[in-house]
Amino acid sequence: MAVTDSNSSCCDPEESPVSCCKVESIISIDERGQMVLPKEVRDKAGIRAGDKMALISWERDGKVCCFSLIAIEEFSDIVKGRLKPLMQEIL
């Protein structure tokens, strides 16, 4: 069994196995560029009205090919985990 770092996240592409990803639903974008996350997905992810999410994009050949939503708390932990070793090295 692999040991996991308490700072790791299921959203960290370097830490997560590809098998954890799956298509949850197909959504549409309206005329104003808005989309709705289905209730089942929001419930499963614990997303509530007013929650903040970081929208992360990946590019391939100059075009965005993939988006990911990460709860801002998780994203903050990921950034801190990446920057902490850097800052310790500098100081």
Explained architecture:
The relative contact order is 0.15. The protein has one domain (18-90). The protein has helices at 39-45, 72-90, and strands spanning 53-60, 63-71. With 91 residues, the chain is an alpha+beta fold. It is extended and about 50 Å long. The chain is built from two helices and two strands. The longest helix has 19 residues, at 72-90. The chain has a two-stranded antiparallel ribbon. Strand 1 (53-60) and strand 2 (63-71) form a beta hairpin. 29% of the residues lie in helices and 19% in strands.
Question: What are the SSEs and their pairings?
Answer:
Elements: H1 39-45, E1 53-60, E2 63-71, H2 72-90
Antiparallel strand pairs: 1-2
Please summarize the sheet with the most strands. Answer: 2 strands, antiparallel
Q: What is the succession of H and E elements? A: HEEH
| Distance between the ends | 35 Å
User: Structural class of the helices, strands and pairings?
Assistant: alpha+beta
Global Rg: 16 Å
Instruction: Count up the domains.
Output: 1
Overall 3D form: extended
Q: Strand order within the widest sheet?
A: 1-2
Averaged pLDDT = 81
Show unreliable segments. Answer: none
Looking at this protein, list some descriptive labels.
91 residues; alpha+beta; two-stranded antiparallel ribbon; 2 strands; 19% strand
